[in-house]
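Take a record.
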Amino acid sequence: MGGIRGGATSWWRWSTCGRRGTPGGWRSSPVRSAPVWTWSRRRRGRCGCPRGCWRKGRSWWRGTSPRAPRQVLCRLRRRRGCSRGSPRPPTMALPSKPTRRPTPWGARGTARQAPTGPHPEVNRIDLRWPAGLPDGGRHGFTPSHRERLEAALPEMAARLADALPPDAHRVHILGFEELMYTPLRLAHELERTTDVEVRYSTTTRSPVLAVDDPGYAIRTRLTFPAHDDPADGPGERYAYNVAGAGFDAVVAVVDSTADTPALHAPDGLLARLAAHAPHVLLAVIPSYVPDAYVPERPSMLPEPLRGPAFSSYAPEEVGWLLQDLSDVTLEAPTEEREEAIQSGGAHYAESLPVEYQPNEQYQALFHAALETSAARIAQAVGVVTETVLTERAPRPVLVSLARAGTPVGILMRRWAQYRHGIDLPHYAVSIVRGRGIDANALRWLAAHHDPRDVVFVDGWTGKGAITRELAQALEEFEKSDGITGFSPEIAVLADPGSCVRTYGTREDFLIPSACLNSTVSGLISRTVLRADLVGPHDFHGAKFYRELAGTDVSVTFLDAVSARFPEVADAACVQAKELLAVDRSPTWEGWAAVERISDEYGIHDMNLVKPGVGETTRVLLRRVPWKVLARAGAGSDLDHVRLLAEQRGVPVEEVDALPYTCVGLIHPRYTRGATGADGKAVTL
């Protein structure tokens, strides 16, 4: 609020006139503090209020202070409808001088007298401010910063409440000049979680005349020297409506830059507060200093794509850090893609397989599998989510690896909402074997969230190739961009290969989302990385198959699993606690099994061995399969695998002591001549 100003041809009037439409009228503030007073500029002359007001007001102001400016204080705040020239308007007699005796004021006029005797000792509170969290918006305050503050506020308010005296009923939170948002949030959280009446204001460098009169907004003023070593030199600072307000305690909230000897000096702010409150507390927020190094970034990256414009998921369920390539023809016949991939002529991410369209029999298998395994999946979702919330971060940023990880990421987000009432941000990014993770997506995440809060999510592990790919890609990204904090650990629903520490189960069972392609993944294709389509400053690409909406079961799958949360919640939490207490280090036994199978079957290429139910299903849907190895005695988890194998003429071979439920083998020496006229696989 600016100070009073005057001039030869104009003057500023600080008015309490409540007349509607009158410049300078006052309005109530939604904040629990003094009314907001407004300035209005008028030519020298009388205001539009009752006759005699200007003359009486002038004499009253002059009686207040010999240095008072020529201004008029209209004390008809409670009167309405006054206008210039109205016949005999109502008037209120103004005293020739203001009342000199201080008037106790506060909530319902029940303010206590200022304490007498020695000033109380200032009690310093350690709020345990989160490391790296900005103290305000000077250097930017992103949604991720707000989420971290939201998560930390309850604990900080509790520490503040514990430091208050037991008999404190009225508490004032006093911010420090521009440090307003954090103290206000602390005040709100303290009032929300306790029975204390909390008021809030900040100190300021703006001088305002204080008049101890019931009709005046600024009743008292504390003056103290600046204590933050300001660039413009020393000067006076002010705190209004704190003195004489009858607060049981005043909490001064300053940043560490302002925690100087001047703050604690005999004439400093804390001493001035101690003269008017029986208890004074000090909370110091670390002053945020951004990293000096800011890596070069490409031009502004676009915001995430969201449904329904991109994908059939609701917009709040996931944001896709991808570019839309729906208008580009990328599909190629499966046999042509396999020949190009194995000959080294193309990478698998440069094209897309033709989307498999399931017949009625296969769709019935999907729905039967979903009905059978929904509770099992729900419990695994609960276990992995509880593990993440306990070990990784209280409010993690879920980043699923598109596209198999995306339904799992959405389910984890739904569990956090159901069990803990928190909304976790969730994004989907592209990772490509042999090419790494989308670096531009990482740059976007680092610009909007703390990398330490990011948790990568996938559906399941096979032999652990993507786990290794992610670790290597993040290491290279850290070297190239200088951005640190991303953890290479992946949270998965199922980890049959023992490749990660954070999982819902290590059993190899059917996850129905593996049965289908885009129609269970929001109608999104697998991701594409091709130089003529994806530039150095672009996200990786993908397609949205809008034309398949009639067979889309993406939301059906999510809803069926989410509906089982209540019945598995207790068991999931117990299992998560048990897992947290044991050694979950990866053994990589799946990788060893794949090496053994590759040698035993003469394949000698681990990329052509796809272990697990999910990976075997992908082989049958997208690649040219050679054969399927099934564990002896495997039951209904393989019904859909047997059906797909039958449709494609692929033999299913039962194997004893197989560490996975099944393993899919891609044709090891594929050429066009390796399939018959009907396009089915042949035996070598």
Observations:
- Residues 360-391 form the longest helix (32 residues).
- The CA atoms of residues 101 and 212 lie 8 Å apart.
- The first strand starts at residue 10 and ends at 14.
